[in-house]
Structure formats: C-alpha cells, structure tokens
Amino acid sequence: MNKTDKIYQENSYLTTLEAKVINCTKKNNIYELILNKTIFYPHMAGGQPKDIGTINGVEILNVFEKNNKIIHEIKEPLQGNVLLSIDFTVRFDHMQQHTGQHLLSYAFDKLYNGKTVGFHISKEYTTIDIDINITDTMANETENFANDIIYKNKEITFSTLNYNDAIKRNLRKEPPKLNNLRIVNIANIEATACGGTHVNATGEVGIIKIVKLEKYKSGTRVYFLCGKRALNDYNNKTKELLEISTTLTCGTELIKDTINKLKAENKNYTKVITSLSNELNLYKAKELKTKYVKKNNINFIFEYLDNTNIKDLRFICSKIIEDENYVLVIVSETDENCNIVIGQSNNMSYDLRVVFEECKNFINAKGGGNNKLILYMSLCLWYLDIANDLFVKLPRFFDYVSYMKYIFYFNFSINFSS
Ligand SMILES: [Zn+2]
Predict the structure, then answer these.
(1) Which helix (H) or strand (E) holds 191?
(2) Which residues place a Cβ less than 5 A from the ion ligand 1?
C-alpha cells in the first residue's frame, strides 16, 4: 500500500482538500481511515499536536502516523472521494509556535551554543529543552535576537535533500539518515530538517515571548509563547494587573511599592499579635494552674480551652510546668481539628510517650515531642470512623478530656472519678 501524501507539508495554509479513501477498517467502535493524501497533521509528530477538523462533515477523533501512513480515527465509515476540512485557527497557532521554536532554537545556538534537545507544543505553552544552563539575562538576549528576525520578515522555504547533501548544508541539527529529508530554510540564516507546519515568512510569528525558565536534567526547559498566544497572555496579565491595582486602590505603577508597604505593616501586626497573645496566654496559664485535682500530692489538670492553636497550647503548657508537681492535659477543639498538649513538670516522671502512643493509634493523631511536653493534632473525635451512631447523635458524649482521664487511669492507675 502506498504511503499517504502529506499535503500539509507542501502547503500549510490549505484548509480543505478532496482525497480518496484507500482503506477503512473498523476497530472497536471507531473507524480507521487511510487516504491517498491528507491535510491533517498527525498527533505529536516531532512535538507538534494534531490538527482538528472534519471529513465529509464528520469530526476527526484522532490522527496519527504509522508506517508512513496517516491514520484518521472517525466514528462513521467513509468510502470513495471525501472532503477534508481543518480548523485553521488551531493550525495557524501551531504554525506560529513551531516557526517560533525554530527561531528561538537558532538564537540559543547562535548566541550561546545551546543545543535544543527537546520540543513540545502543549495547549498552554510551547517548550524547548536546551542543553545548557540559561540565566534570565541570556533568555532576554535570545528573545530579542529571535524577535529581530521576526521584524525583518524573512522568507521561509522548503527543499528536499538526501542525507549526504543535507549534511553538507551545515544544518543546525544532525538530520536523520533518510533519503528524502525535508529542509526548512529561514532565508539564508538557518536550515534544519523538519516535517512540521510553518509560516511562509518570519513576520507571521508576530512575537516570541519567553515566560518561564526551569531547570531540566542538566540544562534548561524554556517556556515560551508565540503570536496570538503571546497577545492573549499579555491581555490576561494586563487585566490581572488592573484588578490588583483596583483592589489595592493604587495606580499600576505603584503596585510594587504598595505591596512592600503592606508586607511591612503585616510583619508589624504579627509582632503585635504575638506579643498580645503571649500576654493573654500568661493569664490563661495562671487561671488553669488553679484548676488542678490533687492526687498523691500531684496537681493534675485536665481542661478544655476554646479555639487555641498548637503554638499557644505549647506556650501555656510550658508556663504551667515551670512549677513543680504538675501533670496536665489541655484539649482545644476548632471546627474540624482537635489540638492536644500533654506535659509534666521536671520533677515528674510519668511515661507520657505511652499516653501519646495510645491516643495516636486510637484517634489517628499526628504530632510529637519529648517526655515533658508532647503536642498533637487529630480530627475531632466525632468525625472519626471509630465514632459510632451514638457519637454522631451525641457528639460530646465521649469527649477527649474524659478519654485522656481514662488513659491515665488505665496506664498509671490514677482514678479521677473518686
Ligand atoms: Zn519545524
């Protein structure tokens, strides 16, 4: 069977074409169509995504290349002469990105001897992988260099060469050892073997904008946008900038200063809040200290505190255990979490890790500490799997504090109910 003629390589601007069905095979619920010629670009051939469109008005589901034939996946069987039609908005976008890639790869090579080792057009970005480390300054220089070639509107042509003639042309990249190599020439500036779709002159790329650099293997992945994509990105960024300036009630030129001012203010507020909450926590510690139950000459505290975070619990606990003879459990519940601190004075020697391990396994808590102070956090008890219907109906029927008292009783034989 003859190979499919790739008309998209002869004329990337052709949007409709009449072709003949050579073969139509049913595979599962899909038909695989092979034509004598096509304008549909196969998916991810050389990093470029497929075209979208219709054949006789029926939407193409996928296009891919297999053994020199282009397979068109379609929902209906088709025979005889058919009319192919591609979505040119998508095609032209791919042409802009792909040609832009040639220019950028050439520019990195020319300016820094950075070789392109990977290329991919995705829905949002186009990326090239360059085998050297690229700094912001280098990216800037390269972007300017490539855009200058766009302004000069250089003609882009194609030629077919065999491998031996091709290597004499000093191509940017070593070509594959094939007889019919398709060479893409950007005027007399650069040439490379490529099977993708490109624009006729560099001016049609519009603009190349590098948007991100990322370390990739031992080199750099360069994210960029060409043509309409770059314009859309510029529009989105301008819109966002205006929204930010409205939120901050300042002009766009003052956004940076305003944010720095807010950051400084925020830092100050945090300092004030920390100092105030420490002061408040000192009072809370003082008050809790009086709520002990005396057993065997030891002051046991088992208490709830409203909405207190782990940091504050640690502070309160450490203040109480500064004095001798204290053992404490403080529980604080928020809407979803339960924070617990257990601690004891320096002269006490209960093995608090036993308590912690037991709680951890039972209520699925996370946390840690030393034998003097352990902090942990879990979901509220009534959210847990272990909570049966009764707990759900009466959430506080079995609460943390009672549970902790039970654990102390169980492990250390201290009975708080007597
Ligand atoms: Zn190309």
Answers:
(1) strand 190-193
(2) 98, 194, 196
| Burial label, 95 (beta-carbon count in 10 A; 0-12, 13-18, 19+) | buried
* Residue with tokens 């847990």, as numbered in its chain: 384
d(CA 165, CA 167): 6
Considering the chain, what is the average pLDDT of its residues? 91
Burial 323-359 (b: 16+ CB within 10 A, else e): eebbbbbbbbbeeeebbbbbbbbeebebebeebbebb
Ligand 1 center from residue 35 Cα (angstroms): 24
**Residue 84 Cα to ligand 1 middle (Å):** 23
**Which structure tokens are listed for 259?**
């944010």
Q: What does the pLDDT read at residue 257?
A: 97
List the beta bridge partners of residue 366: 377
Torsion of CA 27, 31, 37, 40, to 10 degrees: -100
Domain boundaries along the sequence of the chain? 5-86, 91-238, 282-412
What is 5-86's CATH topology?
Elongation Factor Tu (Ef-tu); domain 3 (2.40.30)
User: Rounded mean pLDDT of 275-303?
Assistant: 93
Count the neighbouring beta carbons within 10 Å of the beta carbon of residue 409.
Answer: 14
Q: How far is the CA of 45 from the centre of ligand 1 (A)?
A: 10
CATH of domain 91-238: 3.30.980.10
Tally of CB atoms within 10 A around 43: 15
Between 397 and 59, where is the model more confident? 59
Domain 5-86 identical in fold to domain 282-412: no
CATH architecture of 282-412: Roll (3.10)
Distance (angstroms) between ligand 1 centre and the Cα of 181 equals 12
Distance of CA 111 to the CA centre of its chain: 31
Environment class of residue 46 by beta-carbon count within 10 Å: exposed (0-12), middle (13-18) or buried (19+)? middle
- Fill in the amino acid letter for 103: L
pLDDT tens digits, 185-196 = 999 999 999 999
Q: Which two tokens stand for residue 220?
A: 């750099």
Distances 90 to 12, 107, 401 between C-alpha atoms, Å: 12, 26, 64
Helix ranges (H only) for 113-215 are: 136-151, 163-168
174, 200, 42: which is closest to 115 by C-alpha?
174
